[in-house]
Write a structure and sequence with these properties.
The protein has seven helices and six strands; from the N terminus they run βαβαββββααααα. With 182 residues, it is of the alpha/beta class.
């Protein structure tokens, strides 16, 4: 049995973690818990570096909050200005006692109405709710789901990056046991 601690109580992030582990380790039983921990970055990270730092901080803070686990998973969504447009993406960091894995989601660009609200200081989820007249879309399909008519939802977006973050754990002999990158 593998014990996972997801550094969020958001059901979308928890489901993405479960899906990713089940896809890469299909024969292993999972014991999953969720814990709300701080990212120690701004509520809406505005750079690739800040977003990665937030995911790493979440995984580390989850490890401190619940040290009796095999893996701790931090997921952080971020925004970055690219050529006068706002791009959205997320970082996923997975820690174990002796290893770390990192993966990044695909990037997509925000439409001007949402981007303007983010520039004004709104978090992406709040901006989505305003533009799409929704409530709490961050715990549902999120911006990517709203913009693609759920062809890609947040669970799917995170799941691929989570699998990429698991590569060092699936291929341990190719990755020296280390905590480099912390």
């Amino acid at each position: 049995m593998i014990t996972l601690v997801v550094a969020s109580t958001n059901p979308i992030k928890v489901q993405a973690a479960i899906n990713g582990f089940r896809r890469l380790f299909p024969d292993v039983e999972l014991d999953v818990s969720a814990v709300s921990v701080a990212s120690n970055v701004s509520p809406q990270p505005m750079s690739d570096e800040e977003t990665l730092r937030g995911a790493l901080n979440r995984a580390t803070n989850a490890m401190r909050a619940q040290p009796q686990a095999d893996y701790w998973i931090g997921i952080e969504g971020g925004i970055q200005m690219l050529n006068d447009e706002l791009a959205s993406f997320s970082w996923i960091v997975i820690r174990s006692p002796g290893r770390i894995g990192k993966g990044r989601t695909a990037t997509y660009f925000l439409p001007p109405a949402i981007a303007e609200l983010v520039r004004q200081g709104k978090e992406l989820g709040e901006a989505d709710d305003i533009v799409f007249n929704r409530s709490n879309s961050r715990q549902d399909n999120g911006a990517v789901g709203l913009l693609t008519d759920n062809v890609i939802d947040r669970v799917q977006l995170y799941e691929h990056a989570l699998i990429l973050a698991l590569i060092p754990f699936k291929n341990e002999t190719l990755y020296a046991a280390s905590l480099r990158g912390l």
